[in-house]
């Protein structure tokens, strides 16, 4: 629906603004919240079922992101113990929603149809937890914690969005070059590690394959490209997760990413998915933007 496309676009803008503000102010948990929000946005863009449900969920995320961004750039209360406690709680709840969406993406289309009741139950729980967050402490003078029922949905979104952007533009410390802000964010990169799916609790019978993957990824020379092939249900994702969390991989690669490619049938789709996961703005040449992003973090510029 057009309303979902609009709120996804607005939430993407505010999530990026929150990330940049968190880098400057170094407020705990905000970097994780912004990165999780950007990842959730990219996932919701591809959902086919229950889009009205996701519209409500993302609209709620937009509300909180607007409030957090405003507090981050224009208030000292964001560092109060109570506020930080709620922010940490909210980050954990977003992580649960992210895990729920990722689990759905890993199911085939037919399995998703058969598991609709289970999926609905999981979403009910995530939505309930999101709604239970005490956003009253985030409330600003424009009343971000609650929406006026007398105002049309689109107008409320537009008003809240524009007020946050105006507040950001009035702050000189947020007008610095975006690339320098992203370079500074390496100091907060440990917050993003939690975005990786958890290491498999059970992993049996694939030790030789795991050792081969780890050895290939840590070998000197050209970057490794490994394809794990096989029918559904044989443990391809589990093998990938076990490799990402392997101690040898952790020692060599301090920053790792997991990007679902289920809805990326072409190379162009893959580049868009990677760029979206990294929080990059859409461009005609996403591969160049992705390379530039990693060069900044590696200190080559």
Automatic annotation (TrEMBL):
Transmembrane segments: none annotated. One of its GO terms (biological process) is cell surface receptor signaling pathway. Residues 207-284 form the NB-ARC domain. It comes from the Eukaryota. Pfam families: NB-ARC. Signal peptide: none annotated. CDD domains: MLKL_NTD. GO terms for molecular function: ADP binding. This is NB-ARC domain-containing protein.
């Amino acid at each position: 629906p057009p309303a979902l496309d609009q709120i996804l676009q607005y939430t993407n803008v505010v999530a990026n603004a929150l990330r940049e503000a968190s880098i400057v102010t170094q407020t705990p948990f905000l970097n994780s919240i912004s990165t999780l929000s950007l990842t959730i946005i990219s996932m919701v863009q591809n959902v086919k079922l229950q889009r009205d449900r996701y519209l409500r969920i993302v609209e709620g995320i937009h509300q909180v992101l607007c409030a957090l961004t405003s507090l981050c750039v224009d208030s000292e209360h964001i560092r109060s113990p109570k506020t930080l406690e709620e922010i940490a709680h909210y980050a954990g709840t977003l992580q649960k929603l992210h895990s729920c969406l990722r689990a759905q993406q890993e199911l085939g289309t037919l399995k998703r149809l058969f598991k609709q009741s289970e999926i609905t139950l999981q979403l009910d729980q995530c939505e309930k937890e999101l709604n239970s967050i005490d956003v009253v402490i985030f409330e600003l003078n424009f009343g971000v914690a609650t929406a006026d029922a007398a105002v049309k949905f689109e107008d409320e979104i537009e008003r809240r969005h524009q007020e946050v952007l105006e507040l950001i533009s009035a702050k000189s410390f947020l007008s610095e070059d975006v690339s320098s802000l992203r370079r500074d964010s390496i100091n907060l990169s440990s917050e993003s590690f939690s975005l990786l799916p958890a290491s498999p609790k059970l992993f049996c019978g694939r030790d030789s394959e795991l050792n081969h993957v780890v050895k290939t990824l840590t070998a000197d020379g050209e970057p490794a490209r490994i394809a794990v092939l096989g029918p559904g249900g044989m443990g391809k994702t589990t093998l990938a997760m076990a490799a990402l969390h392997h101690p040898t991989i952790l020692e060599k690669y301090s920053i790792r990413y997991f990007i679902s490619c289920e809805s990326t049938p072409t190379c162009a789709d893959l580049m868009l998915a990677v760029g979206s996961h990294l929080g990059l703005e859409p461009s005609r040449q996403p591969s160049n933007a992705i390379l530039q992003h990693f060069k900044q973090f590696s200190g080559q510029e």
